[in-house]
User: What shape does this take?
Amino acid sequence: MGPRELNGADLVHVFCAREAAPVIKSYSPELIVHPILDSRDAAQEVEKWLPRLHSLVVGPGLGRDDLLLNSVGGILEVSKARGLPVVIDAVRPCSAQDGLWLVAQQPTLIQGYQKAVLTPNHIEFSRLWEAVIKGPMDTKDDSGCVLRLSQALGNVTVVRKGEQDLMSDGQQVLVCNQKGSSRRCGGQGDLLSGSLGVMAHWALLAGPERTDSISPLLVAAWGACTLTRECNQQAFQKHGRSTTTSDMITEVGAAFSKLFET
Assistant: This one.
C-alpha cells in the first residue's frame, strides 16, 4: 500500500495466488494485482516491491494452504528487515483464521516487532492468548488481558475487536466506543485492516511528538476503529438491515471528513 502524506492510499498492490488474480482484478481498475503468492519464491518476488510500499496488510482471504503460509512467513521476515508497518488480520469469522492463525502457530514471527498490529476478534484473541500466554484469561478484565497479551508479544499493538474495540501497545489501553450500528457486516474487518494500514503510515510519519506522546500505531488503531464504526453507522442509516460492507466503503470519504476534518 502506498499512501501519499494524508491524502489516502494512492496505490494498492494485492499479492495473491494465481487463481484468485482475475477475480480480484475485476473488483476495481485501481488495484495492482500480483499473482505470485503461491509461487515458491514468493517472498523474494514481494521483496522487490517493498521499497515502493509504505505498509503491509496480511491476512484477509489467505486461507491455510501450507505453501501460502510459508510464503507469508518469509514476507513478514523481509518486511520486518525493512521496518515496514504490518497489519495482521484474519478472514471472516466463519472461515479459517489465516494471518492471525499463522501468528498463533508461530508467535516468534512478530515477537518484539513494534511496527506490527494484530486485529483479532474475540475468538481469535482467545487463540492468540492460549498460544502466547498459555494460562487462564480473566474474562472480567478485558482491558487488562489486551494489555498483557501486547506485553507478552514484546509490545506489539493488539486491537481486540468487539462491542467496544480495545487496543494496547503494552503500555496503555485505548477504548473505541464510537457509535456504530447493530448490523455488523461480513467483511467489515477488512475495511478496518485496510484503513489501519494507511493510518499506520500516517501516524509513524507524524511521530509521537504529534500524537501527544501516545504510540503512533495506537493512535492509528484508534483512528481506524473509529472510522470503521462511523462508516457502519452512516451506511446503516441509509440501508438499514440490508447494509453490506460495500455500502460502508462508499461512506469512507464522508465519515473521514466528519471525524477528522471538521
Remarks:
- Strands lie at 2-3, 9-15, 31-34, 56-58, 86-88, 116-118, 157-160, 165-168, 173-176.
- The longest helix spans residues 216-239.
